[in-house]
Write a structure and sequence with these properties.
Elements (H helix, E strand, L loop, with lengths): L8 H24 L12 H16 L18 H11 L5 H4 L6 H11 L2 H12 L5 E4 L15 E5 L2 E12 L6 E7 L6 H4 E7 L5 E7 L12 E12 L3 E2 L5 H6 L2 H27 L3 E2 L2 E2 L4 H31 L4 H28 L1 H5 L5 H13 L4 H13 L14 H11 L1 H10 L1
Parallel strand pairs: 1-4
Antiparallel strand pairs: 2-3, 3-7, 4-5, 5-8, 6-7, 9-10
Helix pairs in contact: 1-3, 3-9, 3-10, 5-6, 9-10, 9-11, 10-11, 11-13, 11-14
The chain binds flavin-adenine dinucleotide.
Flavin-adenine dinucleotide binds next to strand 1, strand 3, helix 13 and helix 14.
Length: 437
């Protein structure tokens, strides 16, 4: 009997330490450094100085960059443990960077480690793992995101150089990254899944222009965000700067997303648990019509429903993580569960944050609590890393695979037919029934 929902005491003590450390030492950074690039841009001196001693403590605790395998200096923790850690990190914008596991650097490190040449690892992976530089992963284009078949940004070999032309869009952290992993069409004559490659482009390469830094949400200045609209014009890089082989781009790209989606989902659980904490405190503090909000059944329903949805979602994410650990591969079953979790995430987050915000009344609507920032994550979660529809399509496709419809007039479960079949099977017992009469 192998079902087990417990965390071993040794690891639980690490989680308890993390929880305390994030609340006490890391969350203050969220309150003081509020710029969109602050947790991610190593060139921002104030945040970098505030993070440096915290990173050192995390390293001393052996909790730095835990997503990495032991060969890269990480712990080689499986996805369940990483999930539980990310649940805690999700409380704070700065926490993932302080623990050396912020996106998109984690996924980029993963594919550089798996597909990079020794020289690429030395030049790009090592400083990335040390937290000295930032990196960018650029795939989406202005005219096409969820449909890669419409990508046009391309590269051709010219002597010993790749020449890149085209545009990219929403390339997070591009402006302050040391290098970018850019998905480009290298063979337009075959389907994109065989004709795309990933190139490593140094940020300061001539011909790479950041046209605009797109900002998300309502409260940033337009154009003052961290998501790059990029233009490549006759941008030349060494032929050796390809990650994997020509045409292998999608295979490489797909291997970076599985674990990342689990971490993202567990960080979202962390956000929701924080919203629930706020909801409970508010319900136990605010009095109206002579009683606390917590005494009102409609408030209790909000709290109970939120707890139930968070718990259901959390267990689903941990189940997907457990499957990855079990199979050690992104099997179809694993991909189905990751897609189901990704598709469910914005809805659960919306329900929980909305209730928390609503219970706070006008205070919830203000930008004087974390609630409004949480609310702006809701639509983001449905878009970033692929729209919900695409992930639902994956789930449905997997569920329908290997099943067949019927050509009969009625389905198998049509009672008259099903009962007749069952009666034939149980004829011997039915005869005894008649005998009892
Ligand atoms: C905060 C943020 C950070 C991001 N960071 C990066 C990054 O670092 N690198 C990067 O490359 N990209 C990044 N992206 C881009 C993201 O991956 C894309 O936005 C996403 O893949 C969707 O592409 P799109 O925006 O072009 O929307 P579209 O592909 O135009 O989709 C728009 C809508 O059309 C509908 N739709 C699309 N496809 C289907 C379908 N098959 N069936 C039914 N309906 C469909 C859905 O309602 C969907 O929401 C980021 C996005 C956000 C919001």
């Amino acid at each position: 009997m192998a079902w087990d929902f417990e965390t071993d005491p040794e690891f639980q003590s690490k989680l308890d330490w993390m929880d305390h450390f994030v609340r006490e030492e890391v969350e203050p950074l969220d309150l003081v450094f509020r710029g969109p690039a602050d947790p991610f841009d190593p060139g921002r001196r104030g945040p970098a100085a505030a993070m440096a001693p915290l990173k050192k403590i995390v390293q001393e605790q052996g909790l730095w960059a835990c997503h990495l395998g032991p060969e890269l200096g990480g712990k080689g923790y499986g996805q369940v443990k990483l999930g539980l850690m990310n649940e805690i990190l999700g409380r704070s914008r700065f926490a993932p960077t302080v623990f050396g596991c912020q996106a998109p650097d984690t996924g980029n490190a993963e594919i550089l480690a798996r597909f990079g040449t020794p020289e690429q690892k030395r030049k790009y992976l090592e400083p990335l793992l040390a937290g000295e530089i930032a990196s960018c992963y650029s795939m989406t284009e202005p005219q096409a995101g969820a449909d890669p078949g419409q990508f046009t940004c391309s590269a051709r070999l010219d002597g010993d150089e790749w020449v890149i032309d085209g545009e990219k869009w929403y390339a997070s952290h591009a402006d302050f990254s040391r290098f970018l992993l850019v998905v480009v069409v290298t063979d337009p004559d075959v389907p994109i899944h065989q004709g795309a490659s990933i190139l490593i482009v140094d940020r300061d390469t001539p011909g790479l222009e950041v046209v605009r830094n797109v900002a998300v949400g309502m409260h940033s200045e337009p154009g003052a965000g961290v998501h790059g609209h990029l233009r490549f014009s006759n941008c030349r890089i060494p032929a050796a700067n390809i990650l994997g082989k020509p045409g292998q781009g999608f295979e490489v790209a797909q291997s970076r997303l599985g674990g990342g989606r689990i971490h993202h989902a567990m960080r979202t659980v962390g956000v929701m648990k924080r919203a629930l904490e706020m909801m409970c405190e508010r319900a136990l503090s605010r009095t109206t019509k002579g009683e606390l909000l917590s005494a009102k059944q409609l408030t209790q329903e909000k709290i109970a429903d939120s707890y139930t949805q968070i718990t259901q979602f959390r267990l689903h994410v941990l189940y997907a993580a457990w499957l990855i650990d079990k199979h050690q591969a992104y099997t179809r079953e694993v991909r189905r569960e990751i897609a189901a979790v990704k598709a469910a995430m914005p809805g659960v987050l919306r329900d929980v944050v909305y209730r928390a915000l609503h219970l706070h009344g006008s205070l919830g609507m203000s930008n004087d609590t974390p609630l409004m920032a949480m609310w702006s994550y809701v639509p983001e979660m449905g878009i970033v890393d692929g729209p919900t529809e695409v992930h639902k399509f994956t789930v449905a496709k997997e569920l329908l695979r290997g099943r067949a419809g019927t050509t009969a007039q009625f389905p198998d479960y049509y009672y008259p037919n099903a009962i007749e079949k069952a009666r034939a099977k149980l004829a011997h017992a039915l005869e005894l029934e008649v005998g009892n009469l």
